[in-house]
Design brief:
135 residues, mainly alpha, Serine Threonine Protein Phosphatase 5, Tetratricopeptide repeat, 2 domains, 0% strand, elongated
């Protein structure tokens, strides 16, 4: 891992090597450092939806909801194989930003893609229950 860190610090730009470093850092519990490496990777090679998803997950866990929404939005822009998961991830980021209307829309989009997708069903139910009733 030390060699990979040196490689990154001297300006290494190989996407696979940087992904390996990010995975190693994350496995070692160094989530913030892993996020820094993935952010650099996404600037070097923005076409990797897996790197955007990993960074979005890391940032969401670290409380950077705005950054997570940006990364999950990038995943959606690449027409993912699992659009339900991509919309659900974006909904989670919007919810963390207190953008409940956007989170609701993304949950609905997830359920349009996969009506039986339980995580999106559960989140939509939570969103519905948390909104004040309109009389």
């Amino acid at each position: 891992m030390a060699q990979l860190e040196r490689y990154a610090k001297i300006g290494g730009r190989n996407p696979e090597t940087l992904k390996t470093l990010a995975r190693e850092l994350s496995a070692a519990g160094r989530k913030k450092d892993a996020a820094v490496v993935l952010d650099k990777l996404n600037q070097i090679y923005p076409m990797d939806p897996d790197a955007h998803k990993e960074l979005g997950d890391l940032w969401l866990a670290q409380g950077n909801a705005k950054g997570a929404a940006r990364e999950f939005g990038a995943v959606l822009a690449k027409n993912p194989l699992d659009p339900a998961q991509a919309h659900y991830d974006l909904a989670r980021a919007y919810l963390a930003e207190n953008e409940t209307e956007k989170a609701n829309d993304e949950c609905l989009s997830a359920l349009e893609a996969a009506p039986a997708f339980r995580p999106a069903q559960k989140l939509l139910l939570e969103l519905t229950n948390s909104q004040p009733s309109k009389k």
